[in-house]
Amino acid sequence: MxxxxxxxxxxxxxxxxxxxxxxxxxxxxxxxxKRVCARCPVIADCLAYALASGQTTGVxxxxxxxxxxxxxxxxxxxxxxxxxxxxxx
Length: 89
Fold this sequence. Notes:
Layout: H1 25-38, H2 43-53, H3 65-74, H4 81-88
């Protein structure tokens, strides 16, 4: 996970990426976390890691839990790096 040292989230509050709940302030945190991801040079690596390791909570690679589940369903559960790169673009 050498890519992690280049991630835009380094130094950010980790709680921003793992909000509690799914309404109100939690939605604001998800949006803020995704803004951090949008400027990240390793967003595709992060998303590939999340898909490959089955991360079911939080914002990873610019996606939330539901978006990652949709990606996995769309690819038949294949956690390919190419899928992550396309989704991150």
